[in-house]
Amino acid sequence: MPCRCAPSPRVFLPFLYPSLFAANGAAFARLRLIAPGPRFSSSTSTASSSGAPTPTPSSRLNPTPDDYAMPYFADKAKLMVYSGVGGNGCISFHREAYLDDGPANGGDGGHGGNVYIQAVPGETSLHKLARRRFVRAGKGIHGQGSARGGQRGQDTIITVPVGTVVTELGRTDPVADEMFLESRKEKKPAQQSESATEDEEPANEDHRHKWLLYPGISTSEARKIQVPRLPYRDRLFSQPKAPLYLDLSKPTTQPILIAAGGLGGLGNPHFVSKQRPKPMFATRGEQAFSIEIQLELKLLADVGLVGLPNAGKSTLLRALTNSRTRVGNWAFTTLQPNIGTVVLDDNKGRPKITSFKRTVDNSDSLGPFSLSSDWEEASLERRTRFTMADIPGLIEGAHLDKGLGMEFLRHVERAGVLAFVIDLSAGNAVAALKALWNEVGLYAQMREDEDRAREREAMIDWSAEAGTEKASDQWSAVYPSSEPEVTGLSIAGKPWFVVATKGDLPDTEANFRELREYLNGITKGEVPHPSGVEGAWTQNCTAIPVSAIHGQGTDRIVHWIVGLLDG
Ligand SMILES: Nc1nc2c(ncn2[C@@H]2O[C@H](COP(=O)(O)OP(=O)(O)OP(=O)(O)O)[C@@H](O)[C@H]2O)c(=O)[nH]1
Ligand SMILES: [Mg+2]
């Protein structure tokens, strides 16, 4: 996979390490990196020629602590979702002048509202849902006299950002529970009743609670009333298959049903028969279905920045994009993921790069047919921008929940390219890179384990018939004969490179040399991949030195990323 910016021995940028450029050294040595300005930040310092630290002037890349935006953001939310209960059917009889004993005319109850979920491009955070905790659809309205049916309950749509993963934590489905219990009961009485007419069927006392009796009758009369068997009813919507798992990585054009409302009850005209011309009962609406879901937002960025705390990730994001993410000279300045967009057009001050992204994977759809070059070009779309995600810093032992843990890695999990940001002034760069890869590798394994467990769970048949005679002799879950291996390749297989930052600080050169040699060794296959994962991406491992705080060397990063993204 050729990179747009081929690796060269001139990887040391002259403005950072003039001594490495013998020919141009003298010219670059004259360059002053730091222009004295009126305002100075106490947080960052660079070396002056005398060796004493010189404060870096305050700028967009080195903002004063109040120069940052702190938007509301949440990437996790737990919701209890309730569909609407169905409205009750009505027991009513026609009344008018000279007709005091008219026919039954109770209306049906309205169905309960459904709850849907939809991923929409405008949303960026789950913070509103995280505060909400409960989502309910509207109740169905009860039926009324004069054959007036109740109104249907209002549907509710939960809108979430694109990139949200919905996982079920548990559900209560009264209708399915009842079906399950019934399927467990002896089939004998049901078989007997097949030959009997509907009216002769014995009343099922277990279902008594599903019936509504005429309010005007006495208790003794109520006891005498024989209710028929509940009629079978078709359902327009069925509950989602358990366990619910939705990966909303693309905008959903149609809302997805996650909780169907209960059916409305039937009014008394449904039960009129020759033997029972005046039914004094109607059915109640079905109870609500409830499901507890967890929403997890995995930001969709093309590039993920991974680094130790205080490495300079946010400063790099500010240097490459218009982001106003928080920067400070202390660990864990960033507490929430930030996304920035790198624009590739020729606007003033932006790099002009021609890049293409594949929009349709024709090779899959056309199978063995060979593609003409026209076809291939038609599937390429010009890339005008790409996005970068900056996440809170990782520390060694993050997988043991040290620091902020490594849960924020899910935001770079889907990135096409990983950029490891390493502070050249903060100890051995190779050791830092290894520590980062170790955490990333452990995270990938954990995720793959979770995916495997979910796949196993999805194979279990939770339906009412499962495990009963009706299903089959064997248990309905089918497990694969061999378990898929946890490879860790989901992350280690991605293209990656190192951004060696703070190159403007003194005594960083040797550190950078060592890092570069180590990465060359990985590319040549002499040194194993730092994650230790077999088959990890090692095609063109490189380190690009930058001084993000001065915006130097950052254009080169854009070119390199575009090369990796274009593949
Ligand atoms: N000299 C120098 N200082 C830098 C450079 N890049 C960042 N810094 C400084 O390093 C400090 C940390 O920068 P941040 O961008 O907040 O680092 P971070 O990796 O986002 O830190 P966390 O959010 O805590 O993980 C700030 O004081 C920056 O001004 C650089 O290229 N050169
Ligand atoms: Mg930061």
Automatic annotation (TrEMBL):
Taxonomy, superkingdom: Eukaryota
Record Pfam families: GTP1_OBG, MMR_HSR1
Biased composition (Low complexity): 42-59
This protein's UniProt keywords: GTP-binding, Hydrolase, Nucleotide-binding
One biological process term in Gene Ontology: ribosome biogenesis
Span list, region Disordered: 42-65, 181-208
Domain OBG-type G: 301-566
InterPro entries: G_OBG, GTP-bd, GTP1_OBG_dom, GTP1_OBG_dom_sf, OBG_GTPase, P-loop_NTPase
All copies of domain Obg, residue ranges: 71-300
CC per GO annotation: mitochondrion
PROSITE patterns found in the cross-reference section: G_OBG, OBG
Protein name: P-loop containing nucleoside triphosphate hydrolase protein
Organism field: Cercophora newfieldiana
